[in-house]
């Protein structure tokens, strides 16, 4: 019972993060399942089954708030589904011994990317309104879908930064479009795992609890994306993913690090993590001060009023 309650909280928190950043539901949930000793393929299958419901709820919430660019969804969802199905069947064929380090390595790399991406650069802007071409979205969807299934998460960490870096779509619509298209990706991945593992490879009780937590959080996350600083949240989540997956790798039979080496590694990661969060908070506050200064420079902006325009003959 305690495990189910914990998984419900994880599903809720993971969806809050995913709905706000456009990434990390699968990465966060799969990392925890691996931490308690779940088979890598079964962990990814369980999370993706839950994601069918959470991504549907998240997509509907983002759609109602106007956070979805349907052209992007149409062009990236199908390639993503193909990549996810291929990745799921590939992971299902691997032995547990071979799959565990592969999945932990992918999750670690995604965690490092998320931490560096949001700490160092925040959310890029520019070139808004220019179309995103299919020749960019198709390979992006294939790659993100494959990584998502084999790593237990990756659709957001691969797809969201790539769309943000293009600068051609508003950040809130990047998050909404990625979350909405992930429904198709989760469905395809789940089918791939059912083909490769059968229904016995999925813990339906765990998937249901993750789903309930995620559905509860979905509308809250769609609202948070407009208010919570993604730079700070990205740094916090990235560090958590790094710490947990480094722990898994260091304790694996392939590495077998001593307790002293593990403690040193944890300490170094923790210090870097705290430093990254502090840097992100500092950068966010600096951005807010700059925005406030610009608003004060324009009459009426500081109080939220429309600027007055004087018309002369």
UniProtKB/TrEMBL annotation:
The record gives the membrane topology as: Multi-pass membrane protein
Presence of the UniProt keyword Membrane in the record: yes
The protein's location, in the record's own words, is: Cell membrane; Membrane
Q: What is its main location?
A: membrane
UniProt keyword list:
Cell membrane, Membrane, Transmembrane, Transmembrane helix
| Highest taxon, organism lineage | Bacteria
Pfam families to which the protein is assigned, alphabetical: TauE (PF01925)
Cellular component per GO? plasma membrane
Which regions span the lipid bilayer? Answer: 72-92, 98-116, 136-156, 204-225, 232-250, 262-281
What InterPro entries would the database entry show?
A: TM_pro_TauE-like, TSUP/Inactive_protease-like
| Keyword field contains Ubl conjugation | no
Of which family is this protein a member? Belongs to the 4-toluene sulfonate uptake permease (TSUP) (TC 2.A.102) family.
What is the protein name for this chain? Probable membrane transporter protein
User: Which organism was this protein described from?
Assistant: Marinactinospora thermotolerans DSM 45154
């Amino acid at each position: 019972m305690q495990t189910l309650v914990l998984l419900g909280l994880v599903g809720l928190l993971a969806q809050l993060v995913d709905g706000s950043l456009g990434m990390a539901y699968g990465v966060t949930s799969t990392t925890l399942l691996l931490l308690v000793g779940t088979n890598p393929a079964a962990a990814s299958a369980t999370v993706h089954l839950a994601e069918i419901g959470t991504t549907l709820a998240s997509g509907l919430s983002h759609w109602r708030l106007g956070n979805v660019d349907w052209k992007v969804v149409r062009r990236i969802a199908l390639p993503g589904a193909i990549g996810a199905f291929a990745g799921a069947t590939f992971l299902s064929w691997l032995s547990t011994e071979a799959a565990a380090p592969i999945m932990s390595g992918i999750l670690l790399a995604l965690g490092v990317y998320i931490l560096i991406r949001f700490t160092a650069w925040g959310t890029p802007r520019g070139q808004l309104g220019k179309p995103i071409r299919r020749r960019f979205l198709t390979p992006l969807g294939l790659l993100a879908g494959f990584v998502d299934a084999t790593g237990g998460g990756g659709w957001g960490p691969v797809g969201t930064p790539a769309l943000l870096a293009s600068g051609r779509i508003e950040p809130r619509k990047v998050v909404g479009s990625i979350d909405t298209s992930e429904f198709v990706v989760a469905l395809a991945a789940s089918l791939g795992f059912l083909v490769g593992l059968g229904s016995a490879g999925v813990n339906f009780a765990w998937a249901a609890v993750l789903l309930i937590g995620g559905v509860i959080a979905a509308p809250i996350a769609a609202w948070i994306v407009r208010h919570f600083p993604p730079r700070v949240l990205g740094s916090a989540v990235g560090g958590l993913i790094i710490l947990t997956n480094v722990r898994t790798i260091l304790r694996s039979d392939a590495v077998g690090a001593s307790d002293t080496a593990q403690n040193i590694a944890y300490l170094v990661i923790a210090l870097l993590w705290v430093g990254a969060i502090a840097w992100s908070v500092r950068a966010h506050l600096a951005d807010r001060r700059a925005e406030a200064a610009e608003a004060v420079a324009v009459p009426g902006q500081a109080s939220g009023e429309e600027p007055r325009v004087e018309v002369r003959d």
